[in-house]
Structures
1.
Amino acid sequence: MNTFDRKMEPQEFRAYARKWLEENAPPAPPERLPITPIEVMTVGQRDYLQDWQRKCYRAGLIGVDYPVEYGGHGQSGLQRIANQELERSGVPYLLNIVGLNMVAPTIMKHGNEEQKRKFLPGCLSGEEIWCQGFSEPGAGSDLSNQRTMAVKDGDDWIVNGHKVWTSLGHFAKWMILLTRTSNDHRYDGLTYFLCPIAGHPGVTVRPLIKLTGETGFNEVLFENVRIPDTNRLDEIGQGWAVAMTTLSAERGAAEGAGSAGSGVGDPAATIRKLIELARSTKRGEGLAANDPVTRDAIVERAILAEGLRQSAKRSRVPALCDHPMRLPLQTKLVVTEFDQENARLGVEIAGAHATLYKLDPRAPSSGHWPLAYLNSFGNTIAAGTNEIQRNILGERVLGLPKSK
């Protein structure tokens, strides 16, 4: 069976997804893709990935669990299978990662009927790219310290402020925007909007050059930007609660439509890449793969990879989820540091050749490991720094007293 059928059983759907991906894997991209979608910089990269997401959506591999009336495919419980097959097949990642993993779950929970019908179809298909407007120069991990202000003006809101570290902002048509609508309350004074970005009057997007030389991040400035009240998500003053839904989805509480498309990769696949690197890297008169210290380090990573795989299964067993945020917070913390340590080990194995940049033909693995290591620090900061994650786990999950 190679035609999507909304009545397929799980095993039928897995067979369909696997066969479709085998027969429809896209050709090589016209230019090198970055490690993850949040580093996509060029129009060529965008167009290639946007076309791929559109094809996956039409094939029924994205938005599987979402209702048909909102652009989904109405097959509850099958998105996880689609994600697994997307990951297994080694096809390119999905571009609209913010839209799939954060925006869609948030609109489904807090949006009204009109908002769901208007925004979800384009979000799932990738026709409309989304970005996230949470972080500010003075409000990173301290999300409640928002200073971007929205003031009511008739049926509109006028927004002034400054957002930063906005991934995909240069290509986004829409932004999920957290603003302050009252200075009287720290948390209850926040309101959440669905804000137009591309070409919208008063919105300025400026690229930020990262340590890697890439410009996937941006800063976004708002100067008297008008947003209709119909684009407000949930009630006035409920922005903090809506933002927590978004962050829960970002940290992995929801198995989003594009969680397999993040570009992070399967932990086991990363271990295989480390083994391949060790087998192709000279070390003294032999190979790095023959060095017992290197072998032990890779085996240690492989054990952790299997632990992560087994731990992921617990999230699907309600009896093992004793606290709603423990596994998502724990997973975000452990996985980002796992990826960082893998990249560090790759750099160590490559040795002096790890100083060669990605455009150098002599660079091991086409320069993947040093680039991945530099990128990994952003992942330990995003969605709340890992230090913040540890505090939340300690205080809210384990019940430990607040640190002084």
Note: The chain is about 40% helix and 15% strand.
2.
Amino acid sequence: MEFIAVSEFMSGIAKKQERLLEDLGIFQDWTERYEYVIGLGKKLEPLDDEARNGEHLIKGCQSQVWLDAKAKDGKVYFFADSDSLITKGMIALFINVLNGETPDDILTADMSFIEKTGLKEHLAPTRANALNLMSTQMKQRALGFA
């Protein structure tokens, strides 16, 4: 009888979420976790200047966050920027998980992984709410390509 690893049944998004949680689990201190998240933000591909407008602004965030999405070969690619390093890092978490996935996979993705990071408990309520807004906006952008 052959056993198949559970990870073989996981979607690409679920695998990326699991890797991200493992990476964050390495850090024992919250300061180190936030430095890691900020580092993810610094690695994002630059957002086109023309995308820094009201159409791409995520409304309701404490900081300014711009989100753009493009579809190529049936997959969605996200681009974002923020005027806050931590906020840019937070949207980078979602981009790392959702980038290069199909619209359908993005729309059905369980985004509760963000709760498992433990980051929300250490954020001001307005910043914690921004995580929900980011997730919702990314799904709405994917819906436009579905």
Note: Confidence is low (pLDDT under 50) at residues 3-7.
3.
Amino acid sequence: MNDFVEKMMFDPKWYHYIIIILLSPLSLVYGLFMYLRRLFVEKKSFDIPIVSIGNLVVGGSGKTPFVIALASRYAEVAVISRGYGRKSKGLVEVSQKGTLLCSVEESGDEAMLMATSLPNASVIVSEDRTKAIVKAIDKGAKIIVLDDGFNRVDIEKFEILLEPKAIKNYFPFPAGAFREFWFMNVNADIVVKEEEDFVRKVTLEDLSAKMLLLTAISNPQRLDTYLPPEVVGKIYLPDHAYFDENHLKKKMQEYGAETLLVTEKDRVKMQDFKLPLSKMKLKLEIKEEILMQIDMYIKTYREKGPQ
């Protein structure tokens, strides 16, 4: 069922359109609600530059590696995320200037990946982003990078909106993967398109002769482009799912695999596993013009204050 829904949202076939058409009235209502919300919710301004990295499409647009690439450029920066997939609630400090303060179960996989990838930054997760911003300021942050912040319409911020290279279903939820109407991209300060404004660079490490792909990411078929021929099988789990080590051992034996091939997002949930791993590392190369625009926003904000 999960596979059917993901294909309907990201790569629909003719038979998916039966469901899409049936759900389209609900999509219209949902899209209108999100449009009105954006019009009437009052924005709160903070005395600090806030750069939001977001998207209109659910999952898989490169937000996490973009956040990592951006936050690594600055000092005294705090990354704020909701902490999707975590087993905790409320505000949790994941790291303070690179020092880890919690487990991956408390932080969620994406937040832990950001914390371990950013030794000079702090990471906070919270459903209430406003509360997290106040905490980050109290802890000495001078710049906020807001992960998945485009739909946080109650916060004044500089909007970076990521768009995938190809979009096949433009319907809002539940008929499609859009969180709002697609034309809401006009609210972004910069729209950054994959393969035009940024490209993904994937490197593979510790490969073996027989690898079993294991991943719990949205739209996992997007990894197919990067897979080596030595992959003997694939295990797809729902986005942010946690893993059972004994189950994975049995699956490796079933496929005759020597190692599990995992993404960095998946690997942070396997720190204590005694399983041989091959790694798929993702890095974004972002156009210098995009980075310069963000630098200019931060510089101007510091010189003149909120615009």
Note: Residues 146 and 293 are 17 Å apart (CA to CA).
4.
Amino acid sequence: MKKILKVMLVMVFAITLAGCSCMQKTAKTRVEEFLDQYRNLSANVLGDLDEVVDSETTLSEEQKEKYRDVLKKQYSDLKYEIVDETYDGDTAVVEAKITVYDLYKAQKDASTYLENNRDEFNDENGSYDSAKFMDYRLEQMQDITDTVEYTISFNLTKDDSGNWQINELSQDDLEKIHGIYNYDSE
């Protein structure tokens, strides 16, 4: 009896492991892992974030830190739902609905405010001070609570090892994840 129970437990364990590994090899799971890297502020995401922020030559060090904080908030508060997945052999399309802060709106509203209140961003000599405006713009981005929802179609391909790889995202899709997509141009 113990031998039969052992064999059954081993079989159940093997089936459970096989089920888990199959689930981990789906395109859907790969997209979830990708989006979770943003939400969890993985080392890869933070490294890329630092590269982008550090390359901003027009920002002061203090402004770079504010911008870094804005992006960290954006990523960690990203919400998503997988709404569809289709497979065709070694290719797949996974559709995810994401919700992010509407940083595009914050930037657009800041620019509109600048147009109507340019004098507020002048230095003591009456000349326009772009650093003052950048401080204002970053503050608006930090304080934004409005969100926007997008659907992104992730195209994936199986590699030689049978693992799903996300194909390169379009610039528009990256801007959607970052919340800066210009939806007014649609």
Note: The helical segments are 2-24, 27-39, 43-54, 61-76, 103-116, 130-143, 171-178.
